[in-house]
Amino acid sequence: ATRSSALALWQARHVGAVLARAGITSTLLHVISTADRLQDRALASLGTDSVFVKELEAALRDGRADYAVHSCKDLPSTLPADMQLAAVGERADPRDAFCSERFASFDALPSGARVGTSSPRRRAQLQAWRPDLVFAVIRGNVDTRLRKLREGQFDAIVLALAGLQRLGLRAAHTVPLAPDVVDPAVGQGALAIETRAADRGLSERLHAAFADPATELAVNAERAFLRTLRGGCQTPVGAHATYAGGRLSLRAVIAATDGSRLVRGERDAAVETLADCERMGTELAQRLLAQGGEALLEAAVETRAPGPLAGRVFLLPRTQQRPSRIAPAFERAGAHVVQAHDAAGAAAGLARRPPDVLLFPSSGSVHAVAAYLANLRAAGVRPLVASMGPESSAAASEAGFAPDVVATEANVAAFVQSVTHLVIERSRA
Prior knowledge:
- With 429 residues, the chain is of the alpha/beta class.
- The protein folds into three domains: 1-91 and 188-211, Periplasmic binding protein-like II (D-Maltodextrin-Binding Protein, domain 2), CATH 3.40.190.10; 96-176, D-Maltodextrin-Binding Protein, domain 2 (3-Layer(aba) Sandwich); 313-428, Rossmann fold (3-Layer(aba) Sandwich), CATH 3.40.50.
- It has 15 helices and 18 strands.
- The strands form five sheets. The chain has a five-stranded mixed β-sheet with strand order 7-6-8-5-9, with helices on both faces. Strands 15-14-16-17-18 form a five-stranded parallel β-sheet, sandwiched between helices. A three-stranded antiparallel β-sheet has the order 3-10-4, with helices on both faces.
- The longest helix has 29 residues, at 274-302.
- It is globular.
- 47% of the residues are buried.
């Protein structure tokens, strides 16, 4: 399984060619991700850090694909329990690249120049370097971003150098940015193969055919760093590790979103195993958090732009007393979530305002507020309805509220992503 952009297809074909040399034949399954469908929106507004991978994982789960090819930097720091990282291949150049049609370098940009980047990590570090510049979000595939640059929408843009090299593309001025100035994203430049966790035999074959030991050691340290921060690809952090001669060198940064402060650190040690590398990443993350990085990450969450569900009221019926994992996920996307264990609680919590969205994670959640739903139906009120699976979908339909969307898979991230996509699409109508 692969995304359908030119870069994603190049990557999938490259992986397929490497595997073919080991006697493993592949055919491509093209999958359109949420991020690809909604290229007019900032990535941070899409409600999840897995915007590039969820649909590929769905193809693995339902058996349409046996493995998925990812840019390693797009993978969340923790994979779902039923998925595994089978192999990480030899890394291309991990650096970011300055691209401009008019200016020879980042230093040559005049004050007030407009720089396009969709990455909070890049923006924060570049703004620390040049606070006199104007930074703006740019979306689209690599060729689309270069076209916007040529059209004069930006004075410069910053892209991953590996993607440019793989596609044979460049701007008039394409200059790599040193990792000690702009730390790359975790996993940048490396390709990863993901499989179902249960497919151990296939995973072992793919690993033997594609994995690069030095890159795997480096990337494992970087991913452990990110995992300890509980960060994703939209968090203003970077990390870059190199392995040579039995030693691993790891440098990393946690940044204020406006670049006003950078907390940097480095570690260098002899390593023998993946566990050694993961320990290094964890220890460096803990050190940077203690040196002020934790406050920067908390501030980044607080100052994040309103989510895609901002201003909307959701009703989440509950059947359990323990804290909900679903409500905080929707609240992070901007929604106001009213939790209720019965019809009276729903009416009181909503204070006579009808909800914009009904969330049904289980059939029991539908039954819990059956009387409230009957009142909505009698009043002719029909909110958007979302369910997490077939049983809750059937129960909602029986109650007169057939779902407008059913989660692509029965987990919180997929539920949030499916609902977010529905709300965005309906707001455009």
